[in-house]
Structures are given as C-alpha cells and as structure tokens.
From TrEMBL:
The lineage of its organism: Eukaryota, Metazoa, Chordata, Craniata, Vertebrata. This is CLD19 protein. GO terms for molecular function: structural molecule activity. It is a multi-pass membrane protein. Gene3D superfamilies: 1.20.140.150.
Length: 127
C-alpha cells in the first residue's frame, strides 16, 4: 500500500479521474436501464423514464469527460517530460494505451450524447 501513495501527484489525480469515470459509467448504465421503454422495473410513467434516460446520458458524457481529462493530462505530462532536457528520470513516449483512451473517451461521450438526444417527449395536444 506504500507504493500506492509514492507516485507523483498528477498520476494520483489521473487515477482518481479514471475511477470516477468508471463509477459514473456504472451508475449511468443502471439509470439508463431503468429508463428503457421495454423495462418495467421501477416506474412505468413515460416522463419519468425519459428523465432517467437523459440523466444516464449526462452521466455518460460527464464520465467521458473525466476519462478524457485524465488521458490528456497524462499525455501532456509525458510530452513535457520527454522534451525537457533537464529531466533526469525515465522518459516515456505516447503509446497505444493513450490512443485507445482517447478513442474510448470520445465513444463514451458520443454514446451519452446519442442517448440524451434520442429522448423526445410526446407533445400534449390541448383541445
């Protein structure tokens, strides 16, 4: 457990952001499943289901932003250290994991946007 706290502060922050992203994704999935039209779990009112689905979509977007910030922050620090001639530690390069992180974050946010935009309320006609 000592190793967990001996890493640099930005790596700890990136870990926290990624864990937050995972937790938000899990909560968003559960909330979105409750908002599906084909499920009878919880509420059956259509307005409530739309609110659940939109909330799940926003949580997906926020989770994608958390992971995007974490991956981009780590990449910025790696790039800064790589081009710093006075940095004496191990120099890393951008690798496949960062590119997959960016792609996953974009898909995460895109899924949230599509989920949010797919919900339309039925217009009530007043006679």
């Amino acid at each position: 457990i000592f190793f967990l706290f001996s890493v640099l502060a930005y790596i700890q922050a990136c870990r926290a952001l990624m864990i937050t992203s995972i937790v938000l994704g899990f909560i968003a999935t559960v909330i979105s499943v409750l908002g599906l039209k084909c499920t009878n779990i919880g509420f059956s009112d259509e307005d409530v289901k739309i609110k659940f689905t939109v909330t799940g979509g926003f949580l997906f977007i926020f989770g994608g932003l958390c992971s995007m910030v974490a991956v981009s922050w780590y990449a910025a620090m790696v790039t800064t250290q790589f081009f710093d001639s006075l940095y004496a530690g191990t120099k890393y390069e951008l690798g496949d994991a960062l590119y997959l992180g960016w792609a996953g974050s974009v898909l995460y946010m895109l899924g949230g946007i599509l989920l949010t935009c797919s919900c339309k309320r039925k217009k009530k006609q007043d006679y």
